[in-house]
Amino acid sequence: MKNMMGLMFFYSKKILKFALIFNILFFSNFIIPLTSSQALIYRTSYDLFKNNSANKNSYRVLDDNLRLTQKNWLKNRYDVYVNNLSSILDGSDPALNYFGLKTYFADDYYWGDNDKRNGINNNVVIAVLDDGLKLEDWLDLENTLNINIMWYATYSSIGIHVVDSPYYLRDNHLEEAYAGHGVTVLSTLGTIARGINVVFIDLLFAENDYFGFTLDEAFKFLVDNGDKWGIDIVLVTTSVKVNNNRIPAMERNSSALFDKNYFMVVSSGNAGNKYNTYSDGSYFYPQKSPYWFTVSSIDYEDIGNYFDTDLYSKKNEWSGTARSSYLSASWGDTSYSASSIDWVMPGNQVPTMLSSPSYRYDNNLRKWEFSCGTSYSSPYLAGVVAVILDGYMDGYLAFQKTAPILTISKIKQILLSASSLSDFNYLLGYGFVNVHDAYSLAYKQGYLEAAPRPPGGIGPSPL
Known about the structure:
Layout: E1 7-8, H1 36-51, H2 56-59, E2 67-68, H3 86-89, H4 94-97, H5 101-106, E3 125-130, H6 135-145, E4 148-156, E5 159-163, H7 166-171, H8 181-192, E6 197-202, H9 215-229, E7 233-236, E8 238-242, H10 247-259, E9 263-267, E10 283-285, E11 293-298, E12 343-346, E13 348-353, E14 368-372, H11 374-396, H12 408-417, H13 435-450
Helix pairs in contact: 6-8, 8-11, 9-10, 11-13, 12-13
């Protein structure tokens, strides 16, 4: 973490009209402080919003249909809490071992003494858009999984704050009252990609959530600022119900992010229906966008049978096949397209860090539980993408001092090669991705691309 305690950026329009307060215009690479009169207008609107939810729209245009794509606070597979962290830290928990995490951590053929349980070797950066963090969330993610939160961006009544210290949140009263989903999503990501660098963008989620961006604003903020942080991956675990009038602006931002070579991952949702067809012509975004890779949930274990009233899961099948499953994941088009599911990862009863910092093990690390939702499937897939980027650089740097950027198309090809299905299924996409296979394929690709060619052009022997 950087030593500087905090950095605040204030963006504003040259001319503010009260009716358009917080309809934000971002100036890339410029910092424009608010004048005292502008700050007064913002604070007035903020106070109105805070004290009377009926005035919400005079403060910000909150996405009324913003949905968390997960379900929290469910009973776990066996007990209320994960008994200890060893099965999570070594990848042997059944949910993690299902997609090869134990083998990935244990196999040192490629990385030698660089144990991947301690963290990936290279500078991989992910932008996570979620519901905010508390000081304890930030510290617990660092202490348990070595997650490096480089920057945390949120929006308050006086502007945009971009900070690099968790203590800045508490000292400046920016901690989220409505928080808990973000820390569980980051913990799921960190089970795979230890040591990953994170730019966390706080989203405005609910009536009592006074800090954060709307999804539209967050996309524009990333367009303007992502390159300075070296973003590789973007993870979203929400969806917004939109109509055709709103889509063009959001798609322009998604297209701009895609053109920057950001690999963008989104959860499918848990509604148990087709997520992009509604009678009023609206649908959920960004699941339908061609620039985003959508992830649904697959069950990794059998509990009970089809006729049991307490049935939880059916191994290797879509999370929803079991008629009384806690999780019934959403899907997209029935043929492979921009609107279909791309992959699945476990999301039904998977280990996540507790949203509350009050419950701890004897060693003072925060307790974990088993949770349900495609909000946990998608960070697993994003974690595999981080491993691919790391593996490619490991292989390339075996011969060269620097490595080129791995393109989205190449990442997708590696994911497909490491997938459990060769043919598309509308509920499962191309299946789940084996993380060990994905790393090995990426390493080999980097190694072979970087290896010196002897006279005659014949390269090194394949690994």
